[in-house]
């Protein structure tokens, strides 16, 4: 039985690259018009074997994109949390209004 590691790695990298493409699309605000996709974590196929050397640059590129996407997601989540905190401070029309300032000159 001959294992075609190059083909197996190419397929595995295709799958990882598709995951990064989906995250990058979400970050590009394309998700606003549809529901968020279900999470389907990647796991390496059985019997993958060692990474062929000629695929190393592609694997490194995908890893760099994954790290950049993870950082962008974290920054976006922090921004969303801050925006939520600010909007939570906005008074609704149902509650009595508080004074916007207090004149202490009198």
Number of strands: 0
Annotation field: number of helices: 2
Radius of gyration: 24 Å
Shape: rod-shaped
| Average of the residue pLDDT scores | 80
Main sheet properties: none
What structural class should be given to the helix and strand makeup?
mainly alpha
What is the ordering of alpha helices and beta strands?
HH
Work out the helicity level. 40-55%
**Low-pLDDT ranges:** none
Fraction in beta strands: under 5%
End-to-end distance, in Å? 93 Å
Task: Itemize the secondary structure elements and their pairings.
Elements: H1 5-27, H2 56-88
What is the gist of this entry?
The protein has 106 residues and is mainly α.
Quick tags:
106 residues; mainly alpha; 2 helices; 53% helix; rod-shaped
Would you give an account of this structure?
- The chain is mainly α.
- The protein has a domain at 1-36 and 52-71.
- Helix content is 53%, strand content 0%.
- The chain is built from 2 helices and no strands.
- The chain has helices at 5-27, 56-88.
- Helix 1 packs parallel to helix 2.
- It is rod-shaped.
- The mean pLDDT is 80.
């Amino acid at each position: 039985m001959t294992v075609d590691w190059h083909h197996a790695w190419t397929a595995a990298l295709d799958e990882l690259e598709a995951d990064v493409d989906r995250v990058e699309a979400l970050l590009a605000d394309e998700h606003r018009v549809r529901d968020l996709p279900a999470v389907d974590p990647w796991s390496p196929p059985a019997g993958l074997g060692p990474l062929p050397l000629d695929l190393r640059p592609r694997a490194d590129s995908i890893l760099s994109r994954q790290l950049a996407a993870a950082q962008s997601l974290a920054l976006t989540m922090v921004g969303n949390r801050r925006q939520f905190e600010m909007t939570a401070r906005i008074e609704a029309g149902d509650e009595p209004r508080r004074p916007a300032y207090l004149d202490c000159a009198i």
